[in-house]
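Predicting holo structure, iron/sulfur cluster bound.
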Amino acid sequence: MKIQLAEHYGLCFGVRDAIAQAEELATRGPLTILGELVHNPVVRERLARHGVREGALDDRDSAQSTQVMITAHGASDKARGEWRNAGFGVADGTCPLVLQAHEKLRALVEQGFVPVVIGKRGHVEVNGLTGDFPDACIIESAEDLANLPTAARLGVISQTTQPSEKVLALVDAIRIARPASEVRFCDTVCQPTKNRQSALRKLIEECDTLVVVGGRNSNNTLQLVAAATVAGRAVHHVERAEELRPDWFRAARVVGITAGTSTLKETVATVRIRLEAIATELSLAAH
Ligand code: SF4
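Done. Tokens:
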């Protein structure tokens, strides 16, 4: 059994910097992060060991300190302002690429476009993007096209971690559904997500089995799992090395490893070591 690592995988710079910011803030005093800093249990446990607590962006009573921090997924200006007005110190862990998506949406609205966001309804990043624009329309799938407003100008962006192909297909579908509207699209899928998606395509070509490492509620990890499953590969989604079972790999010849953007490189390294041990075990058992 051969093991192959994706060309691009795991922790992106946005998550890396947000973790570093939280750990640094925690050295200065109590800190509450307003949500899961990233959707990854290993990272959350590490932050908890630094004394960082978790609260909820929409619940002022959930803060266990006067210093709070917005997660890498961002928040609306309205939500930020409400915390400041309530007397909290608000540190911002929003990824610069999420901020860029906010700026692009704001610019579209200022130019008279009705805001449309392609993304997962209820996801914290999408809530943040749409929070300042009550008339924003969220398109998660083709079924939502029926909710598109009839407007002269539609300004479309997407959640940063959506698959590019899906976003482009939905933009085409929006143009078809509203032929009389001017549809302006700003591509806000982030480069680290695009890199991981294209590295996954390569891995799918080369492997019969894939291990995807990442949080069970991490959107971009689930996208990697979905893409590999649709391609017909055997896919195993794990959060950590201990979950790997030798049984899964009895028929495997080439096993690819990839990871979501909130997965620590150390976690992927331990998964690789465990897989190598499983490969040795299976090869010894076969002889
Ligand atoms: S996935 Fe992209 S947008 Fe999200 S934190 Fe990472 S770099 Fe930023």
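The radius of gyration is 21 Å.
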